[in-house]
Amino acid sequence: MYSWLVFIHAVSAMVSIGPFFVLIPMLRKLKTADGDLLHSYLDSFRFVVRLSKHAGHVLVASGLLLMWRGSWPWTTPWIFGTFVVLFASLLFMARAFSPTIRKLREPEHDRQALLRKLSRSLYLYLFVLFVMLWLMIMKPMLW
Question: Count of CB atoms within 10 A of residue 88's CB?
């Protein structure tokens, strides 16, 4: 059972991170898109955020089960560090994408400023995801 949990955990990590890379080239296309095309790109952004969120639920649940089945204590440095980064990323994700996407749907918006914010949020969130991935794979002894 433990090996299946590791597999589920790894797949959910891939599904949480991978779709965000599709959004990188889409950012350039958002600069000139109008009408239905703009809404299609924004729908894609919203879908990726939701997919990542739900894959993250599976990721956390499988991680907790792995901790329980593998007898990993909460005080293990890389586990504690991952949960600190995880909670910070949850707060960040809640404020980073959805409000900006909603503002881009409004008729009167400063597209360039909102796209800069969306781009910065995307790259920052990818960085945070990679920090968590690094903690999970490298398992550093932080203290």
Answer: 13
Residue with tokens 């949480």: 16
* pTM assigned to the model: 0.86
Residue holding tokens 């959910």? 12
3-state secondary structure of 74: coil
Alpha-carbon distance of 55 to 80, in angstroms, equals 20
Tokens describing residue 107? 């008729």
Tokens of 25: 């080239």
Tell me the per-residue pLDDT of 119-131, one tens digit each, with 9 for 90 and over.
Answer: 999 999 999 999 9
Closest CA to 24 of 122, 133, 131: 122
pLDDT digits (tens, 9 = 90+) for 83-106: 999 888 888 877 888 889 999 888
**Spatial contact of 45 and 26, defined as CB atoms under 8 Å apart:** yes
Q: Cα–Cα distance between 79 and 87 in angstroms, integer? A: 12
